[in-house]
Amino acid sequence: MKVIQTIFFFSFFMLLFTNCNSQPQTKTGDKKITFKVWGNCEMCKSTIETALDVKGIKSADWNMESKMIQVVFNPEKMTEEKIHQLIAATGYDTEKSKGDDKAYKELPDCCQYTRKP
Predict the structure, then answer these.
(1) For residue 27, what pLDDT is reported?
(2) Model confidence over 74-106: pLDDT tens digits?
(3) Residue 76 counted as domain residue
(4) How many domains would you assign to the chain?
(5) Is the whole-model pTM more than 0.90?
(6) Quick one: which of 7, 30, 44, 47 is 20 to 30 A from 65 by CA?
(7) 43 Cβ partners below 8 Å, 6+ apart?
(8) Is 12 inside a domain boundary?
(9) Residue 55 sits in a domain of what CATH number?
Protein backbone atom coordinates (compact mmCIF):
# COMPACT_ATOMS: atom_id res chain seq x y z
CA MET A 1 0.00 0.00 0.00
CA LYS A 2 2.84 2.38 0.85
CA VAL A 3 4.42 1.70 -2.56
CA ILE A 4 1.17 2.54 -4.35
CA GLN A 5 0.88 5.82 -2.43
CA THR A 6 4.47 6.72 -3.29
CA ILE A 7 3.93 5.95 -6.98
CA PHE A 8 0.71 7.97 -7.00
CA PHE A 9 2.40 10.92 -5.26
CA PHE A 10 5.38 10.82 -7.66
CA SER A 11 3.09 10.54 -10.72
CA PHE A 12 0.99 13.47 -9.54
CA PHE A 13 4.00 15.76 -9.25
CA MET A 14 5.45 14.62 -12.58
CA LEU A 15 2.14 15.41 -14.25
CA LEU A 16 2.01 18.77 -12.51
CA PHE A 17 5.51 19.77 -13.62
CA THR A 18 5.18 18.50 -17.19
CA ASN A 19 2.16 20.75 -17.66
CA CYS A 20 4.16 23.85 -16.69
CA ASN A 21 4.91 25.93 -19.76
CA SER A 22 8.16 27.92 -19.97
CA GLN A 23 6.56 30.48 -22.29
CA PRO A 24 5.23 33.66 -20.69
CA GLN A 25 1.55 33.34 -19.97
CA THR A 26 -0.56 36.14 -21.34
CA LYS A 27 -3.77 37.38 -19.84
CA THR A 28 -6.63 38.27 -22.10
CA GLY A 29 -5.74 41.61 -23.66
CA ASP A 30 -1.97 41.29 -23.20
CA LYS A 31 0.06 41.34 -26.38
CA LYS A 32 3.16 39.28 -27.22
CA ILE A 33 5.70 40.54 -29.77
CA THR A 34 9.04 39.20 -30.97
CA PHE A 35 11.70 41.23 -32.75
CA LYS A 36 15.46 41.49 -33.26
CA VAL A 37 17.74 43.42 -30.92
CA TRP A 38 21.46 43.51 -31.68
CA GLY A 39 23.83 42.63 -28.86
CA ASN A 40 26.55 40.14 -27.95
CA CYS A 41 26.68 38.79 -24.42
CA GLU A 42 25.06 38.16 -21.04
CA MET A 43 25.69 41.78 -20.05
CA CYS A 44 23.72 42.85 -23.13
CA LYS A 45 20.90 40.51 -22.11
CA SER A 46 20.79 42.04 -18.66
CA THR A 47 20.80 45.63 -19.96
CA ILE A 48 18.17 44.98 -22.63
CA GLU A 49 15.80 43.14 -20.30
CA THR A 50 16.30 45.66 -17.47
CA ALA A 51 15.39 48.49 -19.85
CA LEU A 52 11.97 46.87 -20.16
CA ASP A 53 11.40 46.46 -16.44
CA VAL A 54 8.73 49.16 -16.46
CA LYS A 55 5.02 49.46 -15.81
CA GLY A 56 2.97 47.92 -18.61
CA ILE A 57 5.54 45.28 -19.56
CA LYS A 58 4.83 41.84 -18.11
CA SER A 59 7.98 40.04 -19.30
CA ALA A 60 10.96 40.40 -21.60
CA ASP A 61 13.34 37.63 -22.64
CA TRP A 62 16.24 38.30 -25.04
CA ASN A 63 17.95 35.30 -26.65
CA MET A 64 21.69 35.88 -27.10
CA GLU A 65 22.09 33.39 -29.97
CA SER A 66 19.12 34.43 -32.12
CA LYS A 67 19.22 38.11 -31.05
CA MET A 68 15.42 37.92 -30.72
CA ILE A 69 13.46 39.33 -27.81
CA GLN A 70 10.01 38.25 -26.77
CA VAL A 71 7.99 40.87 -24.90
CA VAL A 72 4.59 40.47 -23.26
CA PHE A 73 2.90 43.77 -22.46
CA ASN A 74 -0.38 45.49 -21.72
CA PRO A 75 -1.25 47.55 -24.84
CA GLU A 76 -3.37 49.89 -22.70
CA LYS A 77 -0.22 50.98 -20.81
CA MET A 78 2.58 50.44 -23.35
CA THR A 79 3.12 50.62 -27.12
CA GLU A 80 5.41 48.66 -29.42
CA GLU A 81 7.06 51.94 -30.44
CA LYS A 82 7.82 52.80 -26.81
CA ILE A 83 9.32 49.33 -26.24
CA HIS A 84 11.73 49.89 -29.15
CA GLN A 85 12.57 53.36 -27.80
CA LEU A 86 13.31 52.05 -24.30
CA ILE A 87 15.80 49.55 -25.70
CA ALA A 88 17.35 52.09 -28.09
CA ALA A 89 17.90 54.51 -25.19
CA THR A 90 20.34 52.00 -23.68
CA GLY A 91 22.43 51.92 -26.89
CA TYR A 92 21.04 48.81 -28.58
CA ASP A 93 19.63 48.80 -32.11
CA THR A 94 16.28 47.14 -32.74
CA GLU A 95 14.46 46.39 -35.97
CA LYS A 96 12.62 49.71 -35.67
CA SER A 97 14.92 52.02 -33.65
CA LYS A 98 18.60 52.89 -33.83
CA GLY A 99 20.34 52.80 -30.47
CA ASP A 100 21.37 56.08 -28.88
CA ASP A 101 24.93 56.84 -30.10
CA LYS A 102 26.14 58.22 -26.78
CA ALA A 103 24.75 55.25 -24.85
CA TYR A 104 26.29 52.85 -27.39
CA LYS A 105 29.77 54.39 -26.92
CA GLU A 106 29.42 53.95 -23.14
CA LEU A 107 28.65 50.22 -23.41
CA PRO A 108 31.43 47.86 -22.28
CA ASP A 109 33.71 46.69 -25.12
CA CYS A 110 32.14 43.22 -25.15
CA CYS A 111 28.72 44.79 -25.74
CA GLN A 112 29.73 46.96 -28.68
CA TYR A 113 28.35 44.95 -31.58
CA THR A 114 28.97 45.83 -35.24
CA ARG A 115 26.44 48.50 -36.13
CA LYS A 116 24.87 49.06 -39.50
CA PRO A 117 25.51 52.53 -40.98
Answers:
(1) 61
(2) 999 999 999 999 999 999 999 999 999 999 999
(3) yes
(4) 1
(5) no
(6) 30
(7) 108, 110, 111
(8) no
(9) 3.30.70.100
